[in-house]
């Protein structure tokens, strides 16, 4: 015990700034008094396991439970907005690592991470940040699941899918995809259809609508904002496509999702 204490003093005096030492010791004491360290860590591991396994349904259940019984987190900033932004940065970093472990490509995972961190920086309220937390968690989990389900063998089609997944918020053309994959447009189109059973344009639309459904359920973004973010020509076109895909309007979908009712 004496040796451990001497080592701690050495570290404090020789390496760690005194104000950091004070803050650290106070935080450790408060966590021990409140008994929240292990519980928070366990819940964190449960969320991250869902991301790694691509288990989005279970992840949604755990996120909902967190809303009803929020876990305690560390004190990272005096400003509440900055506090939640720091929390999101930490979470996105972990989502990225666990998604890669689950099979998501590093390129896709890191680009997705950057996109969410840039979005977090533009948030004006803590509510927006926490909503983005849920959207990001589900997004990473869904992408891991999709990666696990794919039986695509050819490199061009795999590259094509990854490019689409990373650029759903931009207009995507067959010419762009073919150039990125290093093949001709007709060849890529035929190969994609052969290996996935879907036309490229249909796949892009389906993925955009899937993300839109997620945003409707997990965020407060308006229908107009979602349409713009996912590169639809306008809100009317988005609503029309969404209704064709799910059989209900985006507004009704959001209402059902937030009331806990089954959604298509």
Topology:
Blueprint: H1 2-14, H2 18-34, H3 37-53, H4 56-68, H5 80-101, H6 106-121, H7 126-149, H8 155-166, H9 174-181, H10 185-196, H11 200-218, H12 223-229, H13 235-246, H14 250-258
Helix pairs in contact: 3-4, 3-5, 3-7, 4-7, 5-6, 5-7, 6-7, 7-11, 8-9, 9-10, 11-13, 11-14, 12-13
Strand content: under 5%
What would CATH call the homologous superfamily of the largest domain? Answer: Homeodomain-like
How far is it from the N-terminal to the C-terminal residue, by CA?
Answer: 60 Å
- Please write the string of helix (H) and strand (E) elements: HHHHHHHHHHHHHH
Compute the number of structural domains. 3
Q: Please tell me the CATH architecture of the largest domain by its name.
A: Orthogonal Bundle
The helical percent reads over 70%
Instruction: List the quaternary state of the chains.
Output: single chain
Radius of gyration of CA atoms, rounded to a whole number: 22 Å
Total number of beta strands: 0
The CATH topology of the largest domain corresponds to Arc Repressor Mutant, subunit A
Average residue-wise pLDDT: 83
Low-confidence stretches: 1-13
Tell me about the biggest sheet?
Answer: none
Count up the helices. Answer: 14
CATH top-level class of the largest domain: Mainly Alpha
* Principal-axis shape: globular
Question: Pairing-aware structural class of the strands and helices?
Answer: mainly alpha
Please tag this protein with its features.
mainly alpha, Arc Repressor Mutant, subunit A, 14 helices, disordered N terminus, 264 residues, globular
